[in-house]
Structure formats: structure tokens, C-alpha cells
Amino acid sequence: MILIKNKSETQSEGHNMKTAVITGAASGLGKAIAMKYARENWQIIVADIQDEAGKAVVDEINQLGAKAYYYHCDISRVADFEALADFTETTTGACHFLANNAGIASTGSLMETDEAEWERMISLDLMSCIRGSKAFIPLLMKSATAQEPTAIVNTASFAGIALMPGMMSYNVTKAGVIAFSETLRAELFQHNIHVGVACPSFFKTNLTDSMTSADDATIARVTRWMENSGVTADTVAEDIFNAVRDGEFLILTHKETKKFYKMSRWFPKFMQKKKNTIKSIGTTKN
Question: Is residue 64 assigned to a domain?
Fold first, then answer.
């Protein structure tokens, strides 16, 4: 399902603008990234499965005076990513930035996580970044120059670095996104494509909507942490935009996570002891 704004203007004006493609852009962080790039005068491809919400984001961007297009994309399907890349090239002529942002959340220990949940998490959190990158790399290569590289940012999570108990499948898949991104960064450097990975901690978003494996107490606890966070989706999007501009790889968006990351590298044994005393995020105790 496609919504195109000002299609007649695309050929004359759209091809002169930079293009950003964002998955999961109908809400949350994806929407914030789309709005940030739109305010910077980029044309935006809003990709999602939430058609009404996605079209509303397109309308919001168009009201800013920017250009936006909606495309229905199921991140579990290779064919959808390939069609999205074709649509992007046909509509705008190029792709300068890809945000593999769409994903889901999950809680539970190893023994609480069944095979189906593992497959769901790997497909939607890790393989979605692989599918998206593979589909768009040819267009990103064609759009890149030595003076103006193109970029991919994969949304992981600080959970993929902290590796706290009780979030087994989420931690593993997000750590996989970080490893994939670092490897891809080396592979694409010579092609003038920058790769970054965003690792935000808790902030106000709708991530708990996808936590199907969590009980009510866990969802309430995570929601409280999100609400108490001083970080918003808009500030995370700002950090991502600045990191891409500056060619940064690891995008840490919270002060406390930057401190944790440094401590883990400098004092790994001490930090492991601290983690060993932490209760599982999925526990029903506060």
C-alpha cells in the first residue's frame, strides 16, 4: 500500500533532495527520526505496517513543507524490503540514509523463552537489519560519493551491551545487531557507506506494546522506567542525526549508559560482580 504526495513534483524536485528511509516510522523512535530528517529538508520514506499511523506521519511531514511518502513494509519479508528499495529508487532516484529501526521487545530467562519466541526475536530484531541492509546497499552505493557518503544506522539497544538477566532473547538479538553493524561497517567503508548502531536505554516510547512474553508486572515496571527517563525519542533521534553527520559508529544516547560502557571496558570483573547481584528484569518483585 503506497501513499505518494506530490508525485508530479518528484521528477523535477525530489531527485535533487537527499532521501532517508526509516522502518518502523509510524510511531516512536522511527517517527522521531523521520521528523528530524524532514526538518533538515530531507525527503522521507516512511516504512511500516501500521498504514493509518504511517500516513498520518506523512501528512505531518508534508505540513512542514518537506516531502514524504508512505510504503507498507513487513520487516519479516525479504520481498518487502526489495520492493521498498525499488520504490525508493523509482520515486526519489536515490537513498542517502537507511534507518533499520523497526523491532520488538521481549523479556524472560533462557528457560522461560520457547523456540517460537527465539525465532520471532531473531527475525524481527536481527534479521530485519540484515534484510534491510542487503536490499538497500546497491542503491546506497550508487548514491554515495567520497565527499558525501551514504549511511545505514541499525537500532540495537543498550541491552545488547549491558546484557542484564531476564531479557535473554532481546539481549542476544540486540548484541547480534551490534556485531552485524560493526562487521558491515568494515565491509562498506571502501564503498563510501557509513554504518552506525544506535544503543539507547529506556526512554518514552511504545516498545512495551510488543512485549508479548512479559507479565503485567514487568510491563508496568518497564513503563515506569520509560516514563521516569529524562530522554525522549526526539533527543535520541537528534543524537542519531548528529552521529551520522560526524561519522560515529556506537551511538550511546544516555549519560548513564556511556558511564556503564566505559566501566565495563575498564573494570570488567567489577562490573560482572555488580550484574550478578541484579534481579531479573522479568521478576515480579520490585
Answer: yes
